[in-house]
Amino acid sequence: MPNGNIIIKNASELVTCSGFKAKCGADMSDLHVIENGAVVIRNGIIEAVGPSARALEGVRESEFAVIDATGRAVLPGFVDSHTHLVFGGYRAEEFGWRLRGDSYMEIMQRGGGIVNTVTATRKASRQELMATGLQRLDSMLSLGVTTVEGKSGYGLDRDTEIKQLEVMRDLGRAHPVDVVPTFLGAHAVPDQYKGREDAFIDFMISDVLPPAAADGLAEFCDVFCEKGVFSVDQSRRLLMKARELGLKLKLHADEIVRLGGAELAAELGAVSADHLLQASDEGIDRLASAGVVATLLPGTAFSLREPYARARDMIDRGCAVALATDFNPGSCFTESIPLIAALATLHMGIRTEEAITALTINGAAALDRADAIGSLDVGKRGDVIVLEFPSYHFIPYHIGVSTVEKVIKGGQLVFQKTAAKETT
Ligand code: NIG
Ligand code: FE
Question: Which protein residues touch ligand 1 with a CB less than 6 Å away?
Answer without folding.
Answer: 84, 113-114, 117, 224, 252, 255, 300, 326, 328-331
